[in-house]
Amino acid sequence: MEEKTPVAETGEKETVSKNFIEQEIEKDLAEGVYDHVQTRFPPEPNGYLHIGHAKSILLNYGLAKKYGGKFNLRFDDTNPTKEKVEFVESIKADVQWLGADYEDRLFFASDYFEQMYECAVLLIKKGKAFVCDLTADQIREYRGDFKTPGKESPYRNRSVEENLRLFEEMREGKYQDGEKVLRAKIDMASPNINMRDPVIYRVAHMSHHNTGDKWCIYPMYDFAHPIEDAIEHITHSICTLEFEDHRPLYDWVVRECEFENPPRQIEFAKLYLTNVVTGKRYIKKLVEDGIVDGWDDPRLVSIAALRRRGYTPESIRMFVDLVGVAKANSSVDYALLEYCIREDLKLKRARMMAVLDPVKLVIDNYPEDQMEEVEVPNNLENPDLGTRMVPFGRELYIEREDFMEVPPKKYFRMFPGNEVRLMGAYFVTCTGCEKDENGNVTVVHCTYDPETKGGSSADGRKVKGTIHWVAAKTAVKAECRLYENIVDEEKGKLNEDGTLNLNPNSLTVLSECYVEPELGKAQAYDSYQFMRNGYFCADCKDSRPDHLVFNRIVSLKSSFKLKKD
């Protein structure tokens, strides 16, 4: 699959790994098939892009960049029934966010409708296309199957003149939807069903998002796509494996339409993630049923959803690199994606104090009206991020789980009589707690040792437990959203009836959280590590200065281990 090529210049044993697509491109360049490399990402604007599309975007862009070529973004907008400007804009934003720079090369298939029409006319004149009156069901019936050759349409042998007239009348709007189609004339006995006189134009009286009502006939994807590539001088049309059987038709179209130095199609394996929802039909239903709050709900793996949740372009690129390029389909564990975001953020982001399930801690021997600041490192693993000053006072919030009245063995946090470190501040000794009428702890009490400021003692005594905290007087209230997989992983993705098997606990909203004052300045997409709670990102839609909302990107730890060669 991969070739290891020695780097001769250095004389060292360094190797450069090439995937099979790079090997093919280098062969084409060496043999003079092409003198440049030009790739494209060609989405249909009928929904939001997902993580699988990210692989295609980054692969195509990366190939162009590696070989000093150019990369186009082109919308395959040949089906006005499903396409929207909203989807066009979301795709542009996704591609730009991932860092795939198409410069000024933004194109639409609909820009080429006139040239596609001319190509169809050329095929008719060459006796390679005909207007057919069969219905869609009849065409399907005549096509045959893998065991049975197809049967020729009774309209297959119309004269060139009649076909030209009928095709022009189709364009003029004289026929209803489905009344006539234009078909390529290839081979009804071909073992490849895609070559059995495929439909290349159909009548569709619909407004188009880009061309309005100019056209009432639209080209089919398998006809339009190779023409678009050829017009844009694409050299290598990189697509996923399901188009492998369509390659003979792709080659037939560019050859019969007489394009010089036509592009070459190469297929690679799709990216499948375990237990995630990527199908547009499923996502559309989740949106319509109000189960998610849009195509960018952070429980989805659309690129917009990953961005909103707090994933970075760097983490997506790392993920795509680790997955690699293969010829055989396989599934990738979602945990690998989570591994990549942890790896990307762990040295880049400040470790902030946020209490998600608060209980009040009162330091009984601390002066009531006193407030001070303690210095806290922003990231212990990366001293370059410096330190910050955090307010400290008599009353704090700590995590409820950091206190137990009757602790189990090896519990080193707060319980009566135990001494712990308040991160960056002082040693404190728990003296007891207050409870409400239901037995729930409402306040924890402790005393502090003034000689331990900074979290260490002059006498060298050690404490085993360190807990984070937020000063009650300066705490900022926030909402934190904890996301889990929207699919029930234990039961599998689909029920027997084909519906999604949803996880009822995919979203937990904690509305009574307290965070340190610095987090009150968080802007959309700002991300942090909340000590001991995970990585969090300020929500781009709902967070505002008077109502902070943080999405948990990922927990701090996972059982996932990256296999190393």
Automatic annotation (TrEMBL):
Annotated Glutamyl/glutaminyl-tRNA synthetase class Ib anti-codon binding domain residues: 351-449
Domain tRNA synthetases class I (E and Q) anti-codon binding: 466-539
The reaction(s) this protein catalyses: tRNA(Gln) + L-glutamine + ATP = L-glutaminyl-tRNA(Gln) + AMP + diphosphate
The Glutamyl/glutaminyl-tRNA synthetase class Ib catalytic domain, residue ranges: 37-346
PROSITE patterns assigned: AA_TRNA_LIGASE_I
GO molecular function, one term: ATP binding
Keyword Oxidoreductase in record: no
Keyword field: Aminoacyl-tRNA synthetase, ATP-binding, Cytoplasm, Ligase, Nucleotide-binding, Protein biosynthesis
Protein name as catalogued: Glutamine--tRNA ligase
Species in which this protein is naturally found: Candidatus Lachnoclostridium pullistercoris
